[in-house]
Amino acid sequence: xxxxxxxxxxxxxxxxxxxxxxxxxxxxxxxxxxxxxxxxxxxxxxxxxxxxxxxxxxxxxxxxxxxxxxxxxxxxxxxxxxxxxxxxxxxxxxxxxxxxxxxxxxxxxxxxxxxxxxxxxxxxxxxxxxxxxxxx
Length: 136
Prior knowledge:
Order of helices and strands: HHHHH
Radius of gyration: 18 Å
């Protein structure tokens, strides 16, 4: 992984990494709380973005992007599911229902992997290498 930026060890120690860890935890807890803690984590990330150092700034940017991309994919899945449910009465909507459920399942896996990857980089004291990426 040549594109990973290693932070200065003194900077990594001086920069508080507790708040991004809490935010990642709130994002992951969103699976159990129907997204309530995720919204709290988003507010926390936006609130701390302005005064963040280089390491935590990349993680906050990554967390904010993860939230909005997750919302977009969840809405696409909801639209497919909602479109398919009434049409499933005449059997032509079943593929749309299945597609919506598949999108939700894949989005959940994508979301969890992004949060775990972010936690790994944060625990190593590294900036997140691609905070604006669509994947990881």
